[in-house]
Amino acid sequence: MLKFHTHTPGSRRASGQVLSALRTFRKNEDGGIIVLSLLLLIVMLVMGGMAVDFMRFESRRAQLQSVSDRAVLAAANLSQTIDSKQVVIDYFEKAGFADAIVGEPIVVDKGNSRSVRVKSELDINTFYLRLIGMDTLSAPAEAAAIEGIGKVEISLVLDISGSMRNGGSTSKGRFGDMQKAAKAFANKVLDPKNGGQITLNIIPYAGMTNPGPEMFDFLNGKRYATPVIDNGPDGKLGTADDVLFPQVSSCLDFEDSDWGTSGLPGKGRDQVPHFMVWAIAPAVMDWGWCPQDVSAIRYAMTDAAEVATFIDGIRMHDGTGTHYGMKYALAALDPATQPAFAHLNAVNPALLPDEFKNRPAPWDDKETKKIIVLMTDGAITQQFRPKMPTDKSNLTSAIGTNKDSKRGREIASAGVNVNRFNQICSLAKHPSRNVEVYTVAFEVSGAGATQMRNCASDPSMYFPASGAGLVDVFEDIAEQITDLRLSL
Q1: What 3-state class would DSSP assign to 343?
Q2: What pLDDT does residue 57 have?
Q3: Which domains occur in the chain, in start order?
Q4: pTM of this structure
Q5: 79-88 b/e (C-beta count within 10 Å ≥ 16 → b)
């Protein structure tokens, strides 16, 4: 028999109460913030823990990098007699990082230079990052160091203006200090232990810079005529007192376009006449706004003794044409000058050694460093020329600086020449050339010091100097060129 159950009024009330309670519970939001807070707390704990893990990571990575740097510096030191690889390994072992080295340290020893490189990696266990699946963090480090130098081309630019006879610490004034400093610099950079791959261009400058008679000929310079001059009281030519106008210098006049390039001046330029602007001190100076050929540029010198002989033979001249010195300094490093170097070698290997007739190296040669060291004792001056290049008066009396002078004329103001100087400095430092420019202001302040400071590649490469301190400055620069250093 089928039985049917019916609800009593009491059971219906109980069922309604349950449904009502469920509906109330569904709508009730009390305590919801606690759940959210718990979730946020967990996230904050994880994030805080991650910061702890990353701090531990950075601390250990810094320790590893420090050990790497110290290891390669010690191993690259040329005075180090222990095997360089073993030196690196010992440093890592003593620091507790024996297993961190990746592969083997790389050592390249050329006798005159040594480079060392090491890669390392350290696995660091995490405390909190493992909650998101990161059990370890890998800390990499790499370091390299080198001592000594490979191929280097240096232009050393020396002020030989008449004002150099003043001040300083020697009987020759600043000029004597310059000679000592230049020879000390050459002894350092041309030391045979450097491997014989360094060449030194010596570039003296006064009012102008003399590239030398052989370079003058290569550039097809146009010499002024050499007329016979009556030098006696009879006022007649063809007698015993006649003289030839002297051809003792080989400076070239520039055109405006020459200042926009890093190479030599264009071919076919006129010769600068033989003259003076200011009165001179004949005991220590030679006649000429253009330095005479005995004080002309010497290219790619490699023997410190030959440099010393040349430096001792230089004489002072008139004017301060620093922009010409800087121009030739850069040109002597420009690969476009290579045919001129080959010409000098062909004329006479004593002018430029056989092994360096293919220099200057290309700008992008990674094995060659190019450096200019420039010193001055004054600000850049105006440029003057005689109105009559072969006037016999030019041999015995200065033409003066008066723009309206009957004998002389100003062809460029000091401001124009400073702009040209700055232009050449910018060309040297351009990333496509990346020549390292060191400058020295020798007992000079004001405009001259500013010009040197602005030309240097970096503020740390500008050096003020005085007296015997010039030797220390030049030796300091030489040490920077050859010093032990990190290379990464």
Answers
A1: helix
A2: 86
A3: 35-147 (no CATH), 151-486 (3.40.50.410)
A4: 0.74
A5: eeeeebbebb
